[in-house]
Design brief:
Length: 579
């Protein structure tokens, strides 16, 4: 059936409303969206300040705390112990709904009065500088990190990882240990600068390896060991060649990284998308899923559309960074253990919520902020069950009349400036563009410049020559010029793993890792496999291809844009070469 086509209210682009989408809207009794998927996602991005941290005093205990809210933000901010304590309740801020005024105008006044948690962190030890994280020990400047220990400068580390730095794992298939600068990898040990590694040990600057050990600058290998540039060596000769690479030298590492980027662009074979054990899906980095489309970083996703970072979700649509038992969710951000939740931000362990913010362990809430362990409440005021249902329906009818019902919160209500959020990382805007679109902007983002006490050119090249005193120095990023420092735990990690002190600040290292991940967008392309006459010249198993010596005629949806340099194959051609 031909999908219905609409014009985005925000960017004026055409976008489809699929028949499956309509069924979902009917199930949830919500109107079809008036914005395209990208503009809808931008709104959700604009509510996630994941990693821009400040210091301010808790408004309850008055102690200094780390927080995602700059001191000039007009909110009450409680440190995590005070927020989760029984010293206050969100019901103290309850109020009646005024049918003579718009919903969001009244909701914003409630939002400005109810305390907000400084950082969303639970059940963690010595992990003050973590956000959207729980059940961790000794973690530092790590975000969306769970059940892990001794993690530094990392993001989306989800499952029992230990002693890792500068990683973006995004995998529920298994953790990592003693790893550095690894991306989209699982069950790895002592690996550095790896992408798409699985069940690997002692692999460095490598791409798409499985079951491998002791490999350097390798790609597309399976169950190999002692390889450099895909050439296998005797164990003793391999060790000698690795020693000659001088891993402890910053200059040598820079050359290795540049060679690694060449491997990715010119030598490695790329499958159109990472999709495993899944049926009827589209997107990338998808595992154990079915009937799920336009989803990214998903595991056990079923009957889901337009989901980003979605482990264990079912019957959901248009949601971001949510999962671990989420079902029947629509237009949400930052949910865990959520059932029948719509238009909601940053809320864990809930059911039957709409238009709520920072509510936890609750059910049957509408338009609430900061409720913990509550039920049958509207605008933080309790009602009997029958009263609640009747009033909720009246408010929804009112919102439909004012044109407010059916979309995520407007950008004007976001607690953050757009430049503080993931929106400015994945869908960047200038200050003028952001303000024109109705987003906020924060002019006082943290960071110092020109205060370095040790210039990059004066840092010793080899980690063996780095003095203990470097932890007392202020360094300067060679890319953005921002000052940063090295803490003792970092220095210990670098020395143990023979890693030179980085010349990039943590934020620039994070953005460099993101460059190794594919965009959350799809293009229609044709397989590049040319059989025996393949123009890329790197792959030769044409006899194993179903299309023989001619060009493959398969088209697919892929996150590899047409102008990219990589060689991209359909799944059948990729498997014929790699398996």
């Amino acid at each position: 059936m031909i999908p219905e086509t609409r014009i985005c209210k925000e960017c004026a682009a055409q976008f489809p409303i699929e028949q499956d989408d309509i069924g979902f809207y009917e199930k949830f009794d919500v109107p079809a969206p008036v914005r395209c998927p990208e503009c809808r996602q931008r709104r959700r991005y604009a509510w996630r300040n994941e990693r821009v941290l400040y210091r301010r005093n808790c408004d309850l205990c008055k102690k200094s705390t780390v927080t995602i809210y700059s001191p000039n933000k007009p909110f009450k901010v409680y440190c995590p112990p005070c927020f989760w304590s029984d010293k206050w309740t969100g019901f103290d801020y309850g109020r009646d709904f005024d049918f003579s005024k718009p919903f969001f105008e009244q909701w914003q006044k409630l939002q400005l009065q109810v305390p907000r948690i400084a950082l969303l962190t639970k059940n963690s030890v010595n992990s003050e500088y973590t956000n959207h994280s729980s059940n961790n020990r000794n973690c530092y400047l790590s975000f969306s990190t769970f059940d892990s220990e001794n993690i530094m400068h990392s993001a989306n580390v989800w499952k029992q990882s230990k002693d890792c730095m500068d990683c973006y794992l995004a995998s529920v298939e298994g953790g990592a240990e003693l790893c550095y600068e690894c991306v989209n990898s699982a069950r790895i040990f002592n690996c550095q600068f790896g992408v798409l590694l699985k069940d690997c040990t002692d692999c460095f600057y490598s791409y798409d390896l499985r079951g491998c050990s002791n490999c350097v600058l390798c790609w597309n290998l399976r169950n190999k060991q002692y390889c450099i540039l895909n050439e296998q060596y005797p164990k003793e000769e391999y060790a000698r060649k690795v020693e000659e690479l001088r891993f402890g030298s910053f200059g040598a590492r820079e050359k290795l990284h540049a060679r690694f980027r060449e491997v990715l662009e010119k030598q490695a074979l790329h499958k159109f998308a990472v999709i495993e054990k899944s049926v009827n899906v589209s997107g990338n980095s998808i595992f154990n899923s079915k009937n799920a489309h336009h989803i990214f970083d998903a595991d056990k996703a079923e009957d889901t559309r337009y989901g980003i970072i979605a482990p264990d979700v079912k019957s959901t649509m248009d949601s971001y960074h949510y999962g671990f038992a989420c079902e029947l969710n629509y237009e949400c951000h930052a949910l865990i253990h959520a059932y029948d939740v719509k238009f909601t931000h940053l809320s864990y362990d809930n059911s039957h919520l709409e238009y709520c913010d920072s509510c936890h362990n609750s059910e049957n809430l509408f338009g609430c902020v900061g409720i913990k362990q509550g039920k049958y409440a509207i605008f933080n005021k309790r009602y009997e069950e029958s009263e609640y249902a009747a009033l909720k329906n009246r408010i929804i009818a009112h919102m439909k009349e004012t044109g407010e019902y059916g979309e995520f919160f407007p950008p004007q209500l976001s607690p953050f400036g757009y430049n503080e959020t993931q929106g400015n990382i994945y869908m960047p805007l200038t200050k003028e563009e952001a303000l024109t679109k109705g987003y906020k902007w924060e002019d006082l983002v943290p960071g110092t410049f020109g205060k370095e006490t040790l210039k990059p050119e004066n840092i010793p090249d080899n980690i063996k020559d780095i003095p203990d005193s470097i932890v007392k120095e202020a360094l300067a990023c060679v890319q953005c010029k921002r000052n940063y420092n090295i803490v003792q735990a970092e220095l210990d990690f670098y020395r143990r793993s023979m890693i030179p002190v980085p010349r990039l600040c943590p934020e620039c290292r994070y953005r460099r890792r993101l460059e190794l991940r594919l965009p959350r967008k799809l293009w229609t392309r044709k397989c590049m496999c040319g059989g025996a006459a393949s123009e890329n010249g790197s792959w030769k198993n044409s006899v194993r291809h179903s299309h023989g010596n001619g060009h493959c005629e398969v088209f697919f949806e892929t996150p590899y844009a047409p102008e990219r340099k990589e060689v991209v194959y359909c799944e059948a051609c990729y498997n014929a070469e790699i398996a």
